[in-house]
Amino acid sequence: MIYSFGDLSTDVDGSVITNTVTGRQYLRFDSFNLTYAETLLAVDSGGIYSGWSIADSGINDDFINAAFGQQGENPCSTGADYALENCGTLSGWQDGAFGASYVGNLDYYAYLSTVGRTGPGGTNPIGITEFAASGRVSEYEAWSSIANLDSNFSPRPINLLLYREASDIEVPEPASVLLLTFALFGLTVRKIRQPQ
Q1: Element (DSSP H or E) covering residue 110
Q2: 3-state SS assignment for residue 52
Q3: Any residues with CB less than 8 A from the CB of 49 and at least 6 apart, and which?
Q4: Is residue 3 over pLDDT 60?
Q5: How would residue 72 be classed by pLDDT, with cut points 50, 70 and 90?
Q6: Would you say 160 and 28 are in contact if contact means Cβ atoms under 8 Å apart?
Q7: Average pLDDT of 137-145?
Q8: pLDDT at 38 over 90
Q9: 45, 76, 162, 180: which is deepest, by most CB within 10 A?
Q10: How many angstroms separate the CA atoms of 106 and 72, rounded?
Q11: Helix, strand or coil for residue 177?
Q12: Are 119 and 142 in contact (CB under 8 A)?
């Protein structure tokens, strides 16, 4: 089943959510179960998610904008960074559409918060975004610490949102396609030239 909300589309049998305007891809909320430290290793060169990056506040804003089909300002950017802030409601939302995480009627992802690192005490470097079963989307820019994120690791974790740009997505090398075309052409010409 394919779900589309705003500019975001995902196949529940796959592992990515795609921004159909920019081509940016995000891993579904339930596509992996890793702690913060394990996620850092996974996105490192040679890791299982090499080529992917951990979302920060800006990428979070882009994701929310895309979910509402908006380009530009995050609908919940009103300055209430230290509390759960309502961003709006997605029409037709299905619980778990972007991946089931945390609890049955609330799906979350975490991201590296610019506000949490620079705000009072700088002790809350993790922000979260919540998708409720009702379709309500909320964000908490300065949610908590890395330790608290990891304490929500089991049995259904709140994972860090991973993304990669369209330019980083590997596609088949044109030279190999061209080589195959020449080989098929050569076989066809050879077949035509053979006397009967």
Answers
A1: strand 106-112
A2: coil
A3: 27, 32, 39, 42, 43, 162
A4: yes
A5: low
A6: no
A7: 88
A8: yes
A9: 162
A10: 26
A11: helix
A12: yes
Contact 32, 156 (CB under 8 A): no
- Residue 24 has a CB neighbour count (10 Å cut-off) of 23
- Averaged pLDDT, 13-23: 92
Alpha-carbon distance values, 41 to 34, 36, 52, 53, 59 (Å): 10, 9, 11, 11, 20
- How is residue 78 written in tokens? 């009103």
Residue with more model confidence, 156 or 89: 89
Whether this model's pTM surpasses 0.85: no
Mapped onto helix, strand or coil, the DSSP state of residue 117 is: helix
The answer to whether residues 132 and 105 touch, using CB atoms and an 8 Å cutoff, is yes
Name the nearest CA neighbour of 64 among 85, 42, 49: 85
Q: Which two tokens stand for residue 145?
A: 């610490």
Percentage with pLDDT > 90 across the chain: 42
